[in-house]
Amino acid sequence: MLCYPSPMSEPVSVSLVIPCFNEAASLKELSAQIDECTALLTARGHQVEVIYVDDGSRDATAQILERMTSARPQMSVIRLARNFGQTAAMAAGFEASTGEVIIPLDGDLQNDPADIPRLLEKMEEGYDVVSGWRRDRHDTFITRKIPSWAANALISKISGVKLHDYGCTLKAYRRSMLAGVHLYGEMHRFIPIYAAQQGARVAEIEVNHRARAHGQTKYGLGRVPNVFLDLILVQFLWKFGTKPIHLFGKFGLANIALSFFSFIGMIWFKYWGGKTFVETPLPMLTIMFFLIGCLSVLMGLLAEVTMRTYYESSRAATYVIREYYRQGKVERPQLQTIKRTAV
Asked: Which of 191, 215, 240 is the last residue of a domain?
């Protein structure tokens, strides 16, 4: 059972999580801005840790991050074995973090670290999640802004959580809000929905957004279907994640009922309507509806078994860590032994 704290009466510890993929050109400027933000938060009484996650970069990102750790004791770097995607990189950073408040931000300089104190100030009013809103967004109009507006409106309508900018990485989360949240696919943008579904108070503030100065964007129209499908999954897991038989079973029973009515119509046409079985599509519809109904019920039973297995088994990570960088040193993660049970 989760407990949601009251408004913060004293400075909390803060973890900044920064996923990076081929951001070598941005790191020097970004680290300077993060250092300024860290100094400001520390002066206000916050304990701050900074976690960079190198998501399998193919440029000099890893080497630059390794050098940066030698002069920054509050900084650590997680290097993933390959490019797992932003959601998995963020999950790795969340898992390694220790702060009471976790704040992710992009590594491409488009998020402004100067907004972080404002997120914390809003959280001090008693909110559990504070989301950034890039109202004045410096992105291409056709390929980025229009799809984003449409997606945000659709997500808000379906989920019931009214936010203007789900895609903004810059958000602040209480650690308690992330308990039990497993991130897959493009799920990081839906964390406010998970939190709200558990009773969290969600707020939104306008944040600065800057044009990309280095490299190329990793996002495009190709991600829109993925986001839409992930939204369907989020809503399914919320409404039927613990009772999938209710969804599949109702659909199956409805189809079986349709097969019954098709059968009655088939018989009526045969004996009173002057139509043989082969002159109407009703026999085929009867068989089709009945088979779909039976298969849907069986699918619901399989989903129930899968659900119970999922909730009763241990959680598996969605990423593989190659190495850590701390204070200029490389640390190899310990190998985990996988126990296999013979059947």
From this structure: 240
pLDDT in tens, 244-301: 888 899 999 999 999 999 999 999 988 888 888 888 899 999 999 999 999 999 998 9
Beta strand 202-206 pairing with 129-133? parallel
Contacts for 221 with CB less than 8 Å, ≥ 6 apart: 143, 147
Task: Give the length of the chain.
Answer: 343
pLDDT in tens, 118-175: 999 999 998 999 999 988 877 665 666 777 787 888 888 888 888 988 889 999 999 8
Structural domains of the chain, count: 2
Q: Are 24 and 145 in a shared domain?
A: yes
Q: In what order do the strands lie in the sheet with 101-104?
A: 202-206, 129-133, 171-174, 101-104, 14-20, 48-54, 75-80, 321-326, 329-331
Structure tokens at 133: 């809103």
The residue type found at 335 is L
pLDDT tens string 133-142: 988 877 665 6
Q: Where are the beta strands (DSSP E) in 147-290?
A: 171-174, 202-206
- State the CB neighbour count (10 A cutoff) for residue 135: 12
User: Are 173 and 287 in a shared domain?
Assistant: no
Give the global pTM. 0.72
